[in-house]
Amino acid sequence: MPNNLFRRATAGAAVVALGIALAGCSSSGTTTSASVNGSAYTGPKVTVTFWNGWTGGAAPTLVPKLVAQFNASHKNIVVKDVPMQWADISAKMPLAIKAGKGPDLAVGHGDDVATYAAQGLLQNSGAIVKSLGYTASDFPAGLFAGNQYKGVQYGVPWSVTPLGLYVNKDVLKNAGIDPSAPVTDASTMDKNLAALKAKGVQGEWVDGYVFTGTFQFESLLWQYGGQLFNKGVTKATFNSPAGVQALTRMVSMIKNGYSPANVAQDGDINALIKGQTAYNWNGVWQTTNPALAKVNWTAQAVPQIGTQKAVWSSSTDWMFPANKGQDKNKTQAAATFVKWMNDHSMGWAATGEIPAANSVHNNPALVQKYPNIKPFLDELPYAHYETVSPGITNAEAEITTAVNEAILGKQTPQAALDGAVAQADKLLQQNAQTYGG
After folding, report:
1. What is the pLDDT of residues 265-285, one digit of tens each?
2. Residue 24, class by beta-carbon neighbours within 10 Å (0-12 exposed, 13-18 middle, 19+ buried)?
3. By the 8 A CB rule, do 277 and 268 touch?
């Protein structure tokens, strides 16, 4: 899994814990509003401190190069790249901002933005976004709104990472299945899985982990017309008939002999690499997996198993911290950097992520250089991003608990989802008390 997403499974508790600790000294969501005029900073020379969690994969090489290019072309701005683990950012940034010692710019995920905003840790970036000329139409559908909390813009999209269907072409060929024929629906998928089983191949492995069982479940839930939470994010709704149908579908892979039981973390993608399975629902980040270099593989959009197209995706987003005594010149210089980075983000696909800016990912040159990301780009019109609600990662973790319980055969899909929803509702109530309604 990519370094930038691993924190979803490890850092959520740190953010929530800090939220509880800081709730008493927060400003009830009140944040500083930045004054930024235009995308070009023309003030005195400043140093912009930039915190990010890009410490693995291609990012640690690419980010310093981009920063160096920016610094060379902007004589009055020096961006200081400060990479650290995502969990460390979650632990350190809130307290640092309160002390006026936080970064001038940071990168977070879609489910971080509301948490930080509710604590008064982010600047109202509406003026920044307006000065940069950004609107919702500059990014994939739903992504811009994912950076809003209580109607206020707090972030700017940077990248997206949808799931896709990875295919081992040789496994299909050996089973007499045409690997060039896309799997677009449940009927085709089930027909192929049955043919693979007849050849002794378990064709679609499923696991009970965040990567990627939870993401597959959420994709299927949306495809069947369900939602994870109600509109106000006060109640969990993933135990709806759509949720039960989605999880039952995943469990049926094991019951029908299409997947082994007890698939280990990353066992699904490893099985595809080893030629033990034909299909794997996994993220765009796997397109840069070096182990796939020796595999005859391709990727497709995830099939439409349910009544509508839908696919899970994460996002990363630029955030402007509301440090005590924040220098407005540094904020405007940081905004200039954000615009430059988005405009020069085509190479970011080398990290296994898709640049969020439509002007970049719709450029034919992107697919020419990175052809493997084409099916993931095709999914963006119907991708679903993180739920926007303070502290949401603790309630989201209950989804994984339910998936794990059902996949391991410990509970029926309905019972597993019902239990997880009951616990998630309690956590949502706690979040409302911690961060304010």
Report:
1. 999 999 999 999 999 999 999
2. exposed
3. yes
The DSSP line for 258-274 is: SS-SSPPTTHHHHHHHT
Q: Of 163, 162, 145, which is closest to residue 154 (Cα–Cα)?
A: 145
CA distance 45 to 252: 61
81 contacts 63 by C-beta, under 8 angstroms: yes
**Both structure tokens of 249:** 């579908």
Contact status, residue 257 vs residue 200, Cβ threshold 8 Å? no
3-state class of 326 per DSSP? coil
Instruction: Centre a 10 Å sphere on the Cβ of residue 190 and count the other Cβ atoms it contains.
Output: 17
Report the C-alpha gap between 349 and 318 in whole angstroms: 17
Distance of alpha carbon 139 from alpha carbon 37, whole angstroms: 22
The helix (H) or strand (E) run that includes residue 231 is none
Topology at the third CATH level for domain 3-161+314-379 = D-Maltodextrin-Binding Protein; domain 2 (3.40.190)
Structure token digits, residue 238 = 């993933």
Q: How far is CA 385 from CA 157, 160, 389, in A?
A: 12, 9, 12
Per residue in 357-372, pLDDT tens? 999 999 999 999 999 9
pTM over 0.90: yes
Where in the chain are all domains bearing CATH 3.40.190.10? Answer: 3-161+314-379, 162-312+391-435
Q: Give the homologous superfamily in CATH for domain 162-312+391-435.
A: Periplasmic binding protein-like II (3.40.190.10)
- Yes or no: say if 226 and 238 are a contact pair by the CB < 8 Å rule: yes
